[in-house]
Amino acid sequence: MARPAKAEINLDALRHNYRLACKVAPDSQAVAIVKANAYGHGAVAAAQALQAEAPVFGVACIEEAMELREAGIQQPILLLEGMFSAEELAVARQQGFWVAVGHRQQIEMITQAASGQALKVWLKLDTGMHRLGVQPGAAVELYRLLAESDNVADGIVLMSHLACGDEIERPQTPKQIQCFADTLAAISAVADELGQRVETSLANSAGTMAWQDCRRSWNRPGYMLYGGNPFGHSQENADQLQPVMNLRTAVIALRDIAIGECVGYGASWCAQRPSKIATIAMGYADGYPRVVKPGTPVLIHGQRASIVGRVSMDMITIDVTDLADVQLGDEVLMWGEGLSVDEIADCAGTIGYELLARMPARVPRVYLGK
Predict the structure, then answer these.
(1) Residues 6 or more apart from 110 whose CB is under 8 A from it?
(2) Does the annotation mark 35 as catalytic?
(3) Do both 221 and 250 map to the same domain?
(4) Helices (H) and strands (E) in the chain, counts
(5) Best exposed site among 44, 129, 179, 256 by fewest CB in 10 Å?
(6) Is residue 3 part of a domain?
(7) Are residues 256 and 221 part of one domain?
(8) Spatial contact of 316 and 348, defined as CB atoms under 8 Å apart
(9) Is 46 found in the same domain as 181?
(10) 87 lies in which domain range?
(11) Locate the Alanine racemase C-terminal domain: which residues (predicted)?
């Protein structure tokens, strides 16, 4: 009998969330972001589930793109970090990948290459995040280099990325929107001169759900596809998302302990009353964060129970004193429906993106709704 730890992946929920991204921005197209193994959910399975609906998939690098191609995904695949060598450029052209470029060297790699298959290029603009992207003052010149090259297809996409899109009250996003608009106006004048068109992309998940002015030709929903709420609070569109991953395990041991007895490594938790402790097959080797604070919840019989003692590599101990009739083999939900990954991430002092993306291969994925 297999160890009970597993990640159930609800592909119907994934499709629901993608459709929500399209519904809230009906005048845009949505690139389905499946980088980092589809945020830990399985990139191939996620892309296969969405291939009838998503016109383009987004990944970080060429290795991720090739995994999808080799699995039979035929849609364009956007390399969000672009290519890192002439060899990768050749592969991108051969495979029909789309490439994001964020500095002159990447642009010249394309424009100075031998004539061949024209690439769909996304020109990344640094509007204030200061991580990747060309500077606004250089954007027009670099756009012209691309637009005048036979190696670049018409319809260059001007893109940028939001630094604080999930924090609605902060002023950074309106400033980024304005910088993007000003640069787009200058680039559009050059495009008109050359008889070309410019497409645009600014919205990530937060931008797609909460910022109307960020919804452009192409949106790039990622975290929201997997049911995660980037805002940390209720939000009209985020509240309609469905969790895609249910991380489940089961009770593998039960014991009664007396007042003063301690549980787990370092004896960090000691019973203040006669207590019933359940041990479950889950630990930090299964992607569950060791650093969760005492009292972090799990669900057993649909009721909350608290983690006590330290999370160890393969096991966690739960105080089930107040739950009736807990038995060996009872299912335990670590996060998913009824207990969001964002709540668990908050208990660990991190974000749900990290918990999902770090889900290790040791945890089997069980796909529902194929």
Answers:
(1) 89, 99, 101, 119, 121, 146, 149, 151, 152
(2) yes
(3) no
(4) 11, 18
(5) 256
(6) no
(7) no
(8) no
(9) yes
(10) 11-225
(11) 244-368
CATH number of residue 51's parent domain: 3.20.20.10
pLDDT of residue 370: 83
Asked if residue 325 is part of any domain, the answer here is yes
Question: What pTM does this model have?
Answer: 0.97
Q: Of the residues 6, 18, 35, 124, which is catalytic?
A: 35
For the segment 4-25, the average pLDDT, to the nearest whole number, is 98
Query: Which structure tokens are listed for 244?
Result: 């895609």
51 shares its domain with 153: yes
Distance set, CA 139 to CA 108, 131, 145, 214, 215 (Å) = 14, 16, 10, 19, 21
* Statement to judge: residues 191 and 281 lie in one domain: no
Half-sphere exposure of 193 (CA within 13 A, CB side): 11
Q: What is the CATH number of the domain that holds 336?
A: 2.40.37.10
> Which pLDDT value is given to residue 270?
97
Looking at the domain assignment, is residue 2 inside a domain? no
Span 261-281, average pLDDT = 97
pLDDT at 1 over 70: no
- Our answer to whether residue 39 is catalytic in this structure is no
313 CB-contact burial (10 Å; exposed 0-12 / middle 13-18 / buried 19+) = exposed
Q: Does one domain contain both 254 and 210?
A: no
State the Cα–Cα distance between residues 176 and 241, nearest whole angstrom.
Answer: 26
pLDDT tops 60 at residue 317:
yes
Whether the pLDDT of residue 71 is over 80: the answer is yes
**313 and 274, same structural domain?**
yes
CA distances from 120 to 60, 110, 158, 312, 317 (A): 16, 11, 11, 48, 52
Give the mean pLDDT of 125-153: 98
Query: What span, in angstroms and rounded, lies between the C-alpha atoms of 368 and 370?
Result: 6
C-alpha separations of 329 from 250, 257, 298, 325, 343 in Å = 5, 20, 15, 12, 25
* Number of compact structural domains in the chain: 2
**Catalytic residue selected from 18, 39, 226, 265:** 265
CA distances (Å), 124 to each of 90, 98, 201, 295, in order? 21, 13, 9, 44
Question: Quick check: 128 pLDDT over 80?
Answer: yes
Contact 57, 46 (CB under 8 A): no
Say if residue 131 carries a ligand binding annotation. Answer: yes
Residue that the structure tokens 């709540």 belong to: 343
Is 313 annotated as contributing to ligand binding?
yes
